[in-house]
Design a protein that fits this description.
Layout lengths: L2 E6 L6 E7 L2 E5 L1 E3 L12 H8 L4 E4 H6 L3 H7 L2 H5 L5 E4 L2 H6 L4 E3 L4 E4 L6 E4 L1 H11 L3 E3 L11 H21 L12 E3 L1 E2 L5 H12 L5 E4 L8 H14 L5 E4 L5 H9 L4 E3 L2 H7 L2 E4 L2 E4 L19 H5 L2 H9 L3 H27 L3 H13 L3
Parallel strand pairs: 4-15, 5-6, 6-10, 10-11, 12-13, 13-14, 14-15
Antiparallel strand pairs: 1-2, 2-3, 7-8, 8-9, 16-17
Helix pairs in contact: 1-14, 6-7, 7-8, 8-9, 10-14, 10-15, 11-14, 13-14, 14-15
The structure holds one RNA strand of 83 nucleotides.
Length: 376
RNA sequence: GGGGGUGCGCCGGAGUUGGAGAGCCGGGCUAGACUGUAAAUCUAGUGUGUAAUGCUGAAUAGGUUCGAUUCCUAUCACCCCCA
């Protein structure tokens, strides 16, 4: 239940650390695969553990509340047992759904009401109920209930929304009972910085969040369509203020180059649907660049997907075969591509950690980014 | 061999029956998008082209007509029935 920075790179703000959770230690910087509905689409937990070598995965409170329902997860003995994953888990609060499902929800001071995207039924979430639900789900790290603002966002809207997010945050902490009653282990409650792309709001929010003295501080409301430079600017504003001895989690980021840039700004934790979703859509990330595997140019390329990868999938399956699997819509296409992309992301952060410890992160990052963004 | 029917774009449908369309719906193909997952999804293009209000086009070749995918003739292909 503690975060320790073990080394900060001498050439930038990148840090290597260790985060203790109720289900094990996480070496940072880390990328967390997203498994919204208690499943990383296309992968078994054995793939995640042995192949991808994920250290922690995400799930989503809103989606699990709707299906299978909280009672089922309680009866299963918590989400770890339910999904057969014994490592650390983080649940997002549903704050992102306040943004992504904005057409089917209404926000009030008390909380947010949703019409279910599945059957239209009405549901109401308050900071208090979200804390209770996340307690029942039983993830190691749980997120405060916030409003993720869209981009672009009017200043007054962002300011008012930030006030609401802060009041909801106080209610989350007031209601959060960390006695290990239900699943017999403690959880970490992480507050979330908002403030859209406005520096003054971000500063105000970071100060407000820092007072909670949480082991993890999250930065939300970025990677919602803003230019990369604005994302980096805002992340940098936040890491300058958020306490150095606490973990920093940049929610929803991102592309490989986004992750390297933000590590150099002092971010420790990332999650993003891109490697898994784009894998299913035929986009592969490699050390040599981005491959659109469905493109006709790969039809007769029998070379490995990524010969330099440490993944057995990427070394042994050919580009032509994987393209064929996409052409004929075989489930195996998604499985191989997802395994490849997520292993690549984990390799990326593992290597970043090594470079940080050797004080060579910044140089490595500078040489890597042109390669990562190259379109093969 | 005789009789009947049907033929359009890469493929399959629907529809027009003298005032027409490089048009509709699927599929395929070719690209693009996706950042705390309403996403194995969505968008676009798919005859030709000097890019245009252009050209060619409804099996093929003729004919009738102001005008033909539509009507007529012949041929070809496929399907059904009879022998």
């Amino acid at each position: 239940m503690k975060f320790n920075v073990i080394h900060t790179d001498t050439s930038c703000q990148a840090r290597a650390g260790i985060l203790d959770t109720s289900h094990g230690q996480i070496e940072t910087p880390i990328f967390m695969p997203v498994g919204t509905r208690a499943a990383v689409k296309g992968l078994t937990q054995f793939d995640l553990e042995e192949h991808v070598r994920a250290q922690i995965i995400l799930a989503n409170t809103y989606h699990l509340y709707l299906r299978p329902g909280i009672k089922v997860i309680e009866k299963a003995g918590g989400i770890h047992k339910f999904m057969n994953w014994s490592g650390p888990i983080l649940t997002d609060s549903g704050g992102y759904q306040v943004y992504s499902l904005s057409s089917m929800r209404k926000i009030k001071e008390e909380g947010a009401s949703f019409s279910s995207h599945i059957d239209g039924s009405k549901h109401f979430f308050s900071p208090e109920s979200i804390m209770d639900i996340q307690k029942s789900i039983g993830a190691d790290i749980i997120m405060a209930f916030d409003e993720c603002t869209p981009y672009p966002c009017d200043y007054n809207y962002a300011k008012n929304s930030l006030g609401l997010t802060h009041r909801w945050l106080d209610r989350c902490f007031a209601h959060f009972d960390n006695s290990p009653a239900i699943h017999n282990y403690p959880q970490i409650l992480a507050p979330i910085v908002q403030g859209s792309t406005y520096e003054d709001l971000r500063i105000e929010s970071c100060k407000y969040i820092s007072d909670k003295n949480a082991e993890i501080n999250a930065i939300g409301g970025l990677s919602v369509g803003e230019p990369h430079n604005e994302m980096y600017d805002m992340a940098g504003v936040c890491t300058n203020i958020l306490p150095k001895d606490k973990a920093r989690y940049l929610m929803g980021v991102g592309l490989p180059e986004n992750i390297l840039e933000c590590i150099s700004l002092g971010i420790d934790m990332f999650d993003c649907v891109l490697p898994s979703r784009n894998a299913r859509h035929g986009i592969l990330y490699t050390t040599g660049g981005v491959i659109h595997i469905k493109n006709a140019k790969w039809k007769e390329d029998f070379s490995p997907i990524d010969p330099s990868s440490d993944s057995l999938y990427s070394q042994n399956y050919s580009k032509a075969y994987l393209r064929h699997l996409f052409q004929v819509k075989e489930i195996l296409a998604s499985q191989i591509a997802t395994a490849h992309n997520l292993r690549f992301y984990l390799w990326l952060v593992e290597t970043a950690r090594e470079k940080i410890i050797n004080n060579t992160f910044d140089n490595w990052k500078t040489t890597m980014i042109p390669k990562l963004t190259f379109r093969l």
